[in-house]
Amino acid sequence: MAVLIETTLGDLIIDLFVKERPRCSLNFLKLCKKKYYNLNQFHSIERNYVAQTGDPSGTGKGGESIYSDMYGDQGRYFEREDLPKMRHTRMGIVSFVNNGDNMLGSQFFITLGENLDYLDDQHTIFGQVTEGISHTIVLDDPFDDDSRISYPPRSPSPTYDMLVKTDQIALDEKEDEDEGKTAEEIAEELRQREMAEQAQILEMVGDLKDADEVPPENVLFVCKLNPVTTDEDLEIIFSRFGKVNNCEIVRDRRSGDSLQYAFIEFDNEKSCEQAFFKMDNVLIDDRRIHVDFSQSVSQNYKYKPKSKNVEEPPRRRPQSPPRRQEIKRSHQKSPSPRRHRRSPSPKRDKRRDDRRDNERRRRSPDNHRDKDRDRRDRDIDRGHRDSHRDRDRDNRRDNHRDSDRDRRRHSPDRRRDRR
């Protein structure tokens, strides 16, 4: 009696001890036929010891026997079979796991070492598998099917948690990823991984359009230049290694002064490599320059002028929009300059508020009544002033009369007549 088990690493055939272990064999066969073990993971693997599986939850605490479908919860576990005696003396022995009190369920393990005889008195023997079970196909079933057990027509589909779960070893993943690699290869993989992580960060912050974008391999980065070095000087020096498509010293936008580094684009990668090996630490204009491959991706988006040999099609002159009809003005005075807004001033604001309050009081009805009262008061005052003026005029007139009389009295003619 045999069962074919398909795994991601190949097919396995497990021979069952039907005569020696009839209840265990029936349990295993019917669970396989029920697709109970499909997509199960090996939740416990110990080198040179055992690999344990058979729990759909993957925790090592679940699973139930086929007898639960026949007898309900009381059939979740069944008693282990002790006779005849079998021993875990070789690799590949399949045994049901003892769940306590010598009760068995659906979990089983596969021995990965030899002479594990201390497991003989606890567990009941069974098969071989690695890392995961994809399908179980029963080749021959000597037991009759019970009508109380329902068998699905197809294998169950994997759940989303099974597909995205990352805390378990994958079906085709090695336990030690660095196995068989040299120290240089491991260091290079770490460096590549760090570069990929940094590129993803730059993409998230917006410095890169794409994390997989790489700088051009035909562009050199030159730094530590002398401020007096020009673009033409660099192009003449580096052109002996090959055709230079573009040579540009980066300058300050305002002052136009050299920032002492440049980018040199060659026509091909071979010329770029030759210039890299030959020109590093070379003396140019009394300065030792440093040359390296460019790590900037700005050259990928920089506008490149077309070749002068290619004739460009004539450009059409864009039509200007119709002009507005100018209106003739009677006077041709230049518009007054726009006054700048004055800075706020507490005194000026207070004067403005006072004028506003005075204007508001002037227009209020109470102000009109006050004006009438003030007018009457002014009339009364004017009457008083007129009366006082008349009295003063009368007094002045009387004073004039008295003075004339006195003057006539003391005149020489008056004295002569008196003689």
Question: What's a quick, concise take on this entry?
Answer:
With about 425 residues, this protein is α+β, with helices and mostly antiparallel strands. About 30% of the residues lie in helices and about 15% in strands.
How would you describe the overall organization of this protein?
- It is a single chain.
- By secondary structure, the protein is of the alpha+beta class.
- Among the domains are: 2-164, Cyclophilin-like (Cyclophilin, Beta Barrel), CATH 2.40.100.10; 219-293, RRM (RNA recognition motif) domain (Alpha-Beta Plaits), CATH 3.30.70.330.
- The chain is 32% helix and 17% strand.
- It has helices at residues 22-33, 67-71, 160-164, 183-205, 231-238, 269-279, 346-363, 365-409, 412-418; strands spanning 2-7, 10-15, 44-45, 50-53, 78-79, 94-98, 103-111, 124-126, 135-138, 219-223, 244-251, 258-266, 283-284, 287-288, 290-293.
- The strands form 4 sheets. Strands 3, 4, 5, 6, 7 and 8 form a 6-stranded antiparallel sheet that branches.
- Strand 11 (244-251) and strand 12 form a beta hairpin.
